[in-house]
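Re: the request from the purification team.
They wanted to know what the chain is likely to look like in 3D before they choose a buffer screen. I agreed to run a prediction and write the result into the notebook, where they can find it.
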Amino acid sequence: LDLSTGYGYFPYLCNVLGHKAEGTDLTQSQNNLYERITKKLNVKVKPLKIKKFKSFSFNQKYDVITSFMICFNQHKNPELWHIDEWDFFLKNINEFLNKNGFLVLSFNAESIEEPVNIDLLNHFISKGAKVEKNLVTFPKSSLIN
């Protein structure tokens, strides 16, 4: 499952390689370029708006949940998510990962000086995440801490 999939390129590539992948994104409209492209790529996209401290639900569990170039965290906004918002999100996501599943997050640079908040990355590491620049990988086991 690719959260905030945009054009759906990642689920498309996963499907081409023989996996079963789908995405989520904001509610679509007929004139939305993202929707037109995901339809052309034959990528299933569920409507979902991710908000801080708001739970969401899926009808199934996934082996891998991804989100690349994240904007749902109030990207480039003074209300950028902090540790509490991320912990709420991670706890919610945990419910939808299979036993050996994992979560992969790729962050947009928030500034030239500090592309991703160092305190947030250190918090993720303390929870068991692997961090490589703007890419953070959580095994399911680390999301329950």
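For the purification team: Residues 83-94 form the longest helix (12 residues).
Please add any questions underneath this entry.
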